Amino acid sequence: MGAPYTYDPKKVAVIVAGVPLGGFADGSFITAERSNDTFSKVSGADGVVSRAKSNDKSGSIKITLQQSSPSNDILSGIQILDEVSNAGVVLIVIQDFSGRTTLVSAFAWIKKPPSAEFSKEISNREWEFECADLDIKHGGNAGVS
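Above: the chain sequence. Below: its structure as tokens.
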């Protein structure tokens, strides 16, 4: 019987425009997905199946921060810079250092400022990035120390 596999959310590094982010929300704090399927299939009348590869690697990444996180200031600065000068296309690197999963986009930009919510509890801010090129490599957490 081998050692248990361990995932540690504290060992997930998020780097946007060279700056490490922190102050993530409780629960799910990163989601990423491609915009389209890698392959589409067509089945002919005679049952012959063909597939077409999509070379579209665009996608999106959502990063959810607590409203109190200083990383909101960094992302707000990037979003405002982009809105004013079109200079907000950034590199995003997300790495699970307790495993082998990596997400990378060399050309990502903030879709819009997150919704603002205020209550008697700490709220979240969800930052959505559009990505022209989203590389996703899923890896396990076995055998990593």
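The chain has one domain: 11-35+57-137.
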